[in-house]
Write a structure and sequence with these properties.
Layout (H helix, E strand, L loop, with lengths): L1 E8 L3 H12 L1 H8 L1 E9 L3 H7 L6 E2 L2 H5 L6 E4 L14 H10 L4 E7 L7 E5 L2
Parallel strand pairs: 1-2, 1-4, 2-3, 4-5
Antiparallel strand pairs: 5-6
């Protein structure tokens, strides 16, 4: 069975939902897809948000460096809040680090709000 380690950057509405879907449906993915999908770590600046979702404290990364250096992470899902698509905003220092690190072969996905009220999302692969 193929193991897939996921890191989630941001645990707002979309990131929190992603965390719940992946953790609550792990057995389903194993049984129907032959994939053992596990959330290896999350990056969230609000510790109460991670705690409310039941994320184990040891799975909450303190920095982007922790996320990208985790050997168990195969896919990083960036769902940090904002209405603008991540690839159109001016890059912050952490975003530059993410781009640099993932240009070396990791896959980075982002969800972009496409509706005015944030009701529609489009998934984009950045690399």
């Amino acid at each position: 069975m193929k193991k897939v380690g996921v890191a989630i950057l941001g645990l707002g509405v979309v990131g929190g939902g992603t965390y719940r879907i992946l953790t609550e449906n792990r057995a389903f993915y194993r049984d129907t897809q032959g994939l053992d999908v596990s959330v290896e770590c999350v990056l969230e600046r609000n510790p109460a948000r991670a705690e409310a979702l039941g994320v184990p404290a040891q799975d909450v990364a303190g920095s982007i460096e922790e996320v990208v250096s985790n050997p168990n992470v195969d896919i990083v899902v960036e769902v940090i809040g904002g209405v603008e698509p991540a690839h159109l905003r001016p890059e912050s220092a952490p975003e530059r680090e993410i781009r640099r690190d993932f240009q070396q072969g990791a896959r980075l996905q982002t969800l972009v709000r496409t509706g005015r009220g944030g009701e529609k999302y489009e998934r984009r692969s950045l690399f």
